[in-house]
Amino acid sequence: MKLSDIDERNLKKEKSEKVEGRATIDILDVLSEEGISVQDLVDTALQMYIPHPGLETREKAEYLFKRELKYALSDPNLCILIYSGILLEREGRVGNLPNISKNSYEKDMSFIIADEVLGTSIATYISGSKGAFEFVRYDKQKPGILSNLGPFIDDVIGGLIGGVSSSMYSRGMAEFGKKDWESGEAL
Fold first, then answer.
1. pLDDT at 181 (0 to 100)
2. Which of 5, 63, 134, 162 would you call most buried, defined as having the most Cβ atoms within 10 angstroms of its Cβ?
3. Which pLDDT does position 126 carry in this prediction?
4. Is residue 55's pLDDT more than 90?
5. Is 6 exposed, middle or buried (0-12, 13-18, 19+ CB in 10 A)?
6. Rounded CA gap, 27 and 34, in Å?
7. Counting beta carbons within 10 angstroms of the beta carbon of residue 165, is it exposed (0 to 12), middle (13 to 18) or buried (19 or more)?
8. Is the pLDDT of residue 53 over 70?
9. What are the residue boundaries of the structural domains of the chain, listed by start?
10. pLDDT digit string, tens, across residues 72-124
11. Is 165 in contact with 50 (CB distance < 8 Å)?
């Protein structure tokens, strides 16, 4: 049987497709409660900054990273993924994760890969395979704030930074190319 053979039923036809009401919590506030500021994210991302067409200076890279971060965090699905990692981190700190001891959580045992899966998912959600590649770079090096975070949240934040960083480079390069195209200059 193929997916196309299955009769489609819209079980959510009565549900609204628009956001209703105002959110009571903002992901930046949740990150702040964990001791993570936007500037921490920027500083960590820029520790691995490499000049690139469209991102020739650190100042431009910082501007584009903040812009891409704001855009990414406007997606409630991404914010929920990040929040789920933060909740896992909080539960791990007090020893409430199912089937794992507090001691194993604190040691970030190599057999626990849920944190890596979550970080990779966040990076991939933001910017596809390029984001996943960037996540691996940040996860291996653990620059900036990543070296001070717990086992789950370091991968969540690494995924966020990796995904946003990848978008920053891709969009910066695209905008650079567009400007060159519009000005008539050869690449």
1. 43
2. 162
3. 98
4. no
5. exposed
6. 11
7. buried
8. yes
9. 27-181
10. 999 999 999 999 999 999 999 999 999 998 888 888 778 889 999 999 999 99
11. no
User: What's the confidence (pLDDT) of residue 187?
Assistant: 42
Q: Which two tokens stand for residue 79?
A: 């914010």
Q: Which amino acid is at 54?
A: G
pLDDT given at position 172: 85
C-alpha angle 82/132/44, rounded to 5°?
65
Q: Helix, strand, or coil here: 59?
A: helix
Q: Is 114 left (phi over 0), alpha (psi -120 to 50) or beta?
A: alpha
Question: What is the C-alpha radius of gyration for the chain, rounded to an integer number of angstroms?
Answer: 19
Q: What is the CATH number of domain 27-181?
A: 1.10.3760.10
Lookup: tokens for 80: 């929920």
Of the pLDDT bands very low, low, confident and very high (cuts 50, 70, 90), residue 13 is low
Return d(Cα 22, Cα 178) in angstroms, integer: 37
**Of residues 42, 74, 60, the one with CA closest to residue 179:** 60
